[in-house]
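hey so u asked for the seq, here:
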Amino acid sequence: MVMYQKTKSALSSILPNKIDKYNFINKISKVSDSNFYELGIYKDDLGKQAIVKLFRGSYGIHRQWLKNEATVYRILHELYAKKGDEIKKVFPHIRIPNLLKVETKKEYYIVMIELVDGANTLAALDGQKMAELSEEVAKYFQFISTLLSDVQKQLLVERNAGFILLMTIFLSTIAVLRHPSAFFSIVKAVYFIFFNGGLLYGEQSFVHRDIHPANILYDGRMVYPIDFQTSVLAHPMFEISHLAITAWKFPDYFWALQESKTFKKIFMNKKILNAYKALSLYCGIHRLAIRSEIGTTISFMSHIDGLRVDN
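ran it, structure tokens below
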């Protein structure tokens, strides 16, 4: 039986007092623009800690995202059970935290994940180190994609070229309403995306789709990618494109990425480069559509200038 404790929040929501052998310790303050999940720290009698994500509600996209995260964790753990030696041989310093429990009822969805001792986000590191580790994680997921079975791929959400082009129309409309000063930049971006839309068809790869310093933990030796809510099958360039648009918050990190081997390889092939640009612009439009801060507008317009979409 699950017992609940009321907590102070904008949603007046609740977190369980106890989940299996883990006891509630404290609630985590919101660290992003998402107010859809309640986050809490739990600990068992041996001192092992876990993080709990709870969504209250019987339906909604955010419940589906949490369900998707649980699915991705299960797939990754299944891969390690079958091909762990192969994965560790290529990426010995990357590990996926354990999925400890999933509990689903009509009124809520709970995911409990191992909280790694001594690991912190990359945000405290210098830009060069952040870029090196982010690039390694992106390569890791490219490798993971080659190991997925057809059955595992069928369990993953797919975001193909048709979806991207349709969503571009929808998101750009919202983006213009939220950021009218970016109108001409958005129009330029939409034109570029559709002009190069043909490059987005074909190969689908597993992408984390939200690689940034807050979603990678590091303890000085091991790297731990987390937060798989929006992970999907999509064009391979989606990973790097999203990584670039989120890197603007850390200028040293962004420019270190631009000098990485991965980006230099992209810049050498015009078709791959244009696919990268198109998907990066799509990611930028998506951010404009969901955020209203003036800084988002400035970052997007700077990003378009940096991509040189006129070339």
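The longest strand covers residues 49-56. The domain at 120-307 is CATH 3.90.1200.10 (Aminoglycoside 3'-phosphotransferase; Chain: A, domain 2).
lmk if thats what u needed
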